[in-house]
Amino acid sequence: MDGVTLLRRARSAGLRVVAEGDKLVIRGPRCAEPVALLLLVHKPAVIAALAGEWRARHREAVEYWSAFHPSAEAAALAWGEIQLRWHRIHGARSPAWQCAGCRSPIGGRTALDLADGNRVHLDGLDCVLRFGERWRREATAGLQALGLDPPAGFEP
Q: Is residue 154, in this structure, part of any structural domain at all?
């Protein structure tokens, strides 16, 4: 059975399947356990299918942005889009009491609630910037593990 077919079957069974390096992370209802076991039996094909989905989405983003921008700029915009997508799915989440930037307690200090569920101190921009750099670096590493490379000249 090929990986794409297995992923379709898993999704119709209510499973969420992601690759984290060479590991498959499968979440969903207990009644879908037989499908989850089938995914594990065919793990290399499933991981390859997941990587293919990311590559296809990246190609679509490059094509979209190329309609509006020069190629180098389009490549950078597409990479930022795919990084954000990766972060929303796989990115680390800090507890509500902890700053995602400096990882210290929020305490009584002013905090900014971010769209991804994280919070950062807002009494300066250091924590916001630090968190942004960290999640982009993590997203780049995750995407590279799936076989995608950032555009030329990209700095994480």
A: no
Q: Which domain holds residue 28?
A: 3-145
């995602």: which residue's tokens? 100
Position 11 in a domain: yes
Report pTM.
0.77
| Total domains, the chain | 1
pLDDT tens for each residue of the chain, 156 residues long = 788 899 889 989 999 888 877 888 899 999 999 999 999 999 999 988 888 889 999 999 999 999 999 999 999 999 999 999 999 988 889 999 999 999 999 999 999 999 999 999 999 899 999 999 999 999 999 898 888 999 988 776
Residues 120, 124, 127, 130, Cα dihedral to 10°: 140
The answer to whether residue 150 is domain-embedded is no
Kindly state whether residue 83 falls inside one of the protein's structural domains: yes
